[in-house]
Amino acid sequence: MLAKLLSRVAASLAALALASGAALAKITIAIGGAGCLCYLPTVLAEQLGEYKKAGVEIELVNFKGGSQALTAVIGGSADVVSGYYDHCVNLAAKNQNLQAFVVYDRYPGLVLGVSPRHTAEINSVKDLAGKKVGVSAPGSSTDFFLKYLLAKNGVAPDSVAVIGIGLDATAVAAMEQGAVDAAVMLDPTPTLLKAKFSGLKILSDTRSEADTLSVFGGEYPGGALYTRGDWIARHEKETQALTDAILATLKWIHSHTAEEIMAKMPDDLVGPDKALYLAALKSTIPMYSITGRMDPKGAAAVLSVFGQSSPDIAKAKIDLAKTYTNRFVEQAAQRLGLR
Q: How far, in Å, CA of 139 to CA of 137, rounded?
């Protein structure tokens, strides 16, 4: 009863602010590839008007990969990153405090596939030694994933040429033309390629719970909103607003069909082949979080994975509790009546 009352009060205050013409706080969100379905909740929240309902006005700035989005926030040209949580763990080893405050992907959704032009010569991760492998951008989560798989399979990371190919049309083209021998991709790219090449060879897949457990041995969170810890300390109201918007969007996603979700997305992100986008979206929806919370076991799994592939992280004394917070999600859930 109290939660419903608080939700109504918050909605009334937001509406009053809009009606009175009060200026909304402006937040710049750097996103590591807006066309990737892993980041859909961030874009959809804007399409649904959830950010404004929560009391903030946002600008989405699209980057080629998560590492570039991260650089924008560290450099101060953006406020918040919509990217993978693993960057928070990676930077903690370098004594930089980044904190995720709402998680929207339960699984990472990363797919390592072989270029159709090189199918005959690559049958396993071990066969990637001496090959060119595409990632969204060097230093991005796709790159981290590749290095983890290489280390896990006894392949020296420096024996593979890592090439940035983006996540959208550029990734599709690089795989089709054989510019890379293999690539780490995110939907809709692997689904689009599978439709064109039925024999597309997949070496590793983390798009479902079963696949994620098979690859990592436990849960592994993907996309989240995160930023510098000092920014959160100075902008608690804005952080809460962003969390409210994402949580409301996750609730909307899980109460609507894939067709209804696609209809809300910008045409340039859906692309010309709506049927394939829809197929990719249907397979991605289970990946989206229901609660927005970070599972401590998932955070620990990220640290464990990094420790296997990075000696520096293995040696670092990382306090995982400082790399994320569920405080804003708990408050948002109470307001939205999701407890």
A: 6
Span 127-147, average pLDDT: 93
What pLDDT is attached to residue 13? Answer: 44
Q: How far apart are the first and last CA of the chain?
A: 11
* Owner of token pair 């796709």: 142
The alpha carbon dihedral of 267, 270, 274, 278 has a sign of negative
3-class state of residue 28 by DSSP: strand
CATH number of the domain at 111-205, please? 3.40.190.10
Domain 2-108+220-336, CATH: 3.40.190.10
CA 176 to each of CA 62, 104, 161, 194, 275: distance values in angstroms, whole numbers, following the listed order: 24, 30, 18, 11, 20
Calpha distance 88→1 (Å, rounded): 37
pLDDT of 97: 95
Q: Three-class SS of residue 155? A: coil
CB atoms within 10 A of CB 206: 23
The secondary structure element, H or E, covering residue 103 is: strand 98-103
Q: Do domains 2-108+220-336 and 111-205 have the same CATH topology?
A: yes
Residue 7 pLDDT grade (very low, low, confident, very high; cuts 50, 70, 90): very low
Task: Show me where the domains of the chain are located.
Answer: 2-108+220-336, 111-205
Dihedral (CA of 117, 139, 222, 235) sign? negative
Give the DSSP letter string of 225-274.
Answer: EEEEHHHHHH-HHHHHHHHHHHHHHHHHHTTS-HHHHHHHS-HHHH-S-H
- Residue 339 confidence class, pLDDT cut points 50, 70, 90: low
